[in-house]
Specification:
homotrimer, 317 residues, mainly beta, Porin, globular, Porin domain-containing protein (chains A, B, C), Gram_neg_porin_domain (chains A, B, C), porin activity (chains A, B, C)
Chain lengths: 317, 317, 317
């Protein structure tokens, strides 16, 4: 027997008792992906892309107005032997303050516009993310994991007016005195604009002081007439710095987005880029609304001069 | 706090927005299974059977009437260390056309009545499935996996009137140019009757041309008065052919079902049957409605002359 | 799109059809845990605690009034690489009789008050559980596993008036004639009081008769004025016996709970306690209602004279 959940807020009075619910939401996508790098014997440059995501969210609030909740995500990609169930985060707070514990973004990823300029159906090389510098720092910062665990993050968020501050630490969930990424980030919203800055000590979670690397990032994004524009900059100690510019424009049901990114290694090869010590990456993509689903595609070029492209549909439920 | 989903279609208007929902459904069963083959030292011919299944279905539709969705299944059997979450499939289409990507049936399993004549609580030897020939081809075709992944299938379904065609390929979700089962199947419904035929190239997913084996299958099923009857036939290149006849009869709350199957090896031993080169398998079972749950049981004999039997209850939610 | 499940029983008529539903519920908690035992090089005595639990319950009933159902639990703790999906149990029965199959408590854990006197946010050493004697028998009895499988338990429960009997066996879900914990337990409720007793043959699931150990347990709990009190006793053959006394008192929104436990080894070292051959364990904790969430904490001392303490919040949804 099929069950249908109501796609609207329940209005049934729950009397004096504190409200608490478990809700389901999710998304799906499929399409085709091209990657020029996969040109070896027995390899195919194209593959089918498939993803399904289900979010299981528990939420509630106390009589005194404190909200609480938690999330477990189910995720399935093409090529998986089975769906994954990501480690949970749990949280408590109100409009001004929240603590989140578990599999969640660190302070920087929570505040800074690292994902500005994401393109295509799948994100392709994710070269638009300023903390992805060459091969040395790919998704180095604490980032929510849809399949695993960001690493036992504890994050505190404060918001007053348009101003916000986040503090985070990771590697907190074991009885080990191991290396921890400790971050602070601030953000400010005014009108259509958002600016943010953050600093992470030991962004690479090194257990040895000598090899700790700190990261500093800035971002700004907003609208100029019908254009959306953004900039982000990250510097990883002794590795490299990267600046990313992005823009997008809406033509009715269609949006076109593009980015260009430039990485400068601190010493040649320090970010895995190679001989030149610097590299420019870029990408362009589009989305077209199907009125409940979206057609999306894009093409990008990364620091190894390889090309990725994709095309497909995605939808939410 | 317990939450209750409504066992009816939601009637709340969602205005102009496209509808999208996540729904849960499932089933359970338990009972006892006997298997004469398990007669070694330290073995027991009987065991307790237990299964629980939860389907997590995301569905929606666009303003233009295109439907989309996806499914993740949770499954737990007796003896499991934990429940499994099967890889997802996602789909999009309408009444005439649908594309399904991921963990899903191939064209043949989607159209042909391979599961006609399934008996008992658990299916026992599944000797009624015509593509199960001896030990050589057990569940060889792309079949939805409740615990894992059918293998990154892409399937296209077309339906007009009672006529339907499906096309499928697998092994599409990686960047490898590996062996693929490519299938086509057609079906036609008229009154209480259904006939179907299909052909799979490289049904055994061989990466080497020389060992590719093609499969051809036919099925028909319908009603003659109070009797339901069915026939299916499969031929796997260089291995064997198998024909299965099945019938069932309803006595009020009770249904009795039976099948007889005959396998002919192409050369003696080519399907793992052994000396005779041919074998007859058969089974009989019943279901009795408990008005919301079902009592079910059966007994079957397979190509190794072993006997399985089961008895138990199953129910849906 | 977010979906909200109704936190009340559905009142929509389902006509003559048997009712069946899948419901979601769960809980979360986070806080800090101290453990004096973790004082080695590179270790930290404190860690962050995080847990999220989601119960997926399928339930229904037949036209004749027989209820049925099943449960799969999702669980995520701090330090996990991913969330776990526990093996399911399925059940059928009515007010007087129920059979439960799969990942479920054995007869003893189902009837006896082993968890009387649980303290703190997390339970700390769980030294209040009388079948936890030293290191030899930690969670030795069949106990529902929130992450894995109790071991294919079959349990029968009978309830008439305040009187109840449970019978159970385990290791039933494979075709092996291996060692099985077979248990019987009885309980009786009168007014605010509950008493229970149980016996488990081969509580340690030994496959060899010579090393089988039987367990016998008793418990009683109830209220004396504003005080809640309990006692439990367990004896594990050739290992040890343990008695636990617990009490609690409610001060409005705050409850204080404490226990003291004493273990006597049958021979010195038989339960892993060490030189003395006997040991006293104790703990004290509190909960304070936040009106929908709970602040909880505690401190306990175990048989190795180590101290654990915790403090945090927990909530249900």
């Amino acid at each position: 027997m099929k069950k249908v959940l109501f796609a609207t807020t329940a209005l049934i009075a729950t009397g004096g008792m504190a409200a608490a619910d478990v809700t389901l939401s999710g998304s799906g996508r499929f399409g085709i992906v091209y990657n020029s790098a996969l040109d070896g014997a027995g390899q195919s440059k194209t593959k089918i892309e498939k993803r399904m995501t289900i979010n299981v969210d528990g939420t509630g609030s106390t009589d005194t107005g404190l909200d609480f909740g938690g999330r477990i995500r189910l995720r399935s990609d093409e090529g998986d032997a089975a769906s994954s169930a990501a480690s949970a985060n749990v949280w408590m707070g109100n409009d001004m303050f929240r603590i989140t514990v578990g599999n969640t973004e660190g302070a920087l990823v929570n505040r800074i516009g690292y994902f500005q300029g994401s393109i295509g159906l799948t994100g392709l090389h994710w070269a638009n993310v300023s903390f992805n510098m060459g091969s040395a720092s790919r998704f180095i910062l604490n980032t929510y994991s849809s399949r695993g665990n960001a690493g036992d993050v504890v994050r505190l968020d404060f918001n007053v007016g348009g101003f916000g501050v986040s503090l985070s630490s990771d590697s907190t969930g074991d009885h080990l005195s191991n290396g921890s990424e400790d971050g602070i980030a601030i953000s400010y919203n005014f009108g259509d604009w958002n600016v943010a800055a953050g600093f992470a000590k030991n962004a690479n979670n090194s257990a040895v002081s000598a090899t700790e690397r700190d990261m500093f990032s800035l971002s700004a994004a907003g609208n100029i007439g019908d254009f959306g524009v953004g900039i982000q900059y990250s510097d990883l100690e002794d590795v490299a710095s990267k600046v990313v510019l992005n823009g997008e424009y809406d033509f009715g049901q269609t949006t076109v987005a593009a980015f260009v990114a430039h990485t400068d290694e601190d010493t040649v090869g320090s970010a895995g880029i190679g001989a030149a010590g610097e590299e420019t990456e870029y990408g362009i993509g589009f989305t077209h609304s199907l009125g409940g689903a979206v057609l999306a595609g894009g093409i990008s070029r990364n620091y190894t001069d390889e090309t990725m492209a994709d095309l497909g549909v995605r939808f939410n439920f």
